[in-house]
Amino acid sequence: MTCRFCEAKQVEHWFGSWCSQCRQIKNLCNVYGYERVLEILKKCCIRDEDQLEKKIEKHKKQDHGDESYEKPKTRSKAEKI
Ligand SMILES: [Zn+2]
Q1: Helices marked H in the chain — which ranges?
Q2: Which of 4, 14, 56, 80 has its CA 20 to 30 A from that of 48?
Q3: Per-residue pLDDT tens digits of the chain, which is 81 residues long
Q4: In the chain, where the domains are located
Q5: DSSP state at residue 63
Q6: pTM of this prediction?
Q7: 9 Cα: distance to centroid of ligand 1 (angstroms)
Q8: How far is ligand 1, taken at its centre, from the CA of residue 30, in Å?
Q9: CA of 1 to the centre of ligand 1 (A)
């Protein structure tokens, strides 16, 4: 059966109505409140084109400059031990 929320993935359990991802979303809503989660989503995800471009540019400059990604030094150090 298909998830009733995203209507794309298969449900987590045969007796359930939600897929595992949507279940996580629902759990977050239960913890923080549906109104608060909706507010956060609106503030963070709904942006006009100009805002999106600015955010993408900012992200590119801040982080790695391009698509390449280097592991943090602390992580690689930890792996050696
Ligand atoms: Zn779903």
Answers
A1: 20-32, 34-45, 49-62, 73-80
A2: 4
A3: 999 999 999 999 889 999 999 999 999 999 999 999 999 888 888 766 677 778 788 888 886 655 565 666 666 556 555
A4: 1-60
A5: T
A6: 0.54
A7: 5
A8: 16
A9: 11
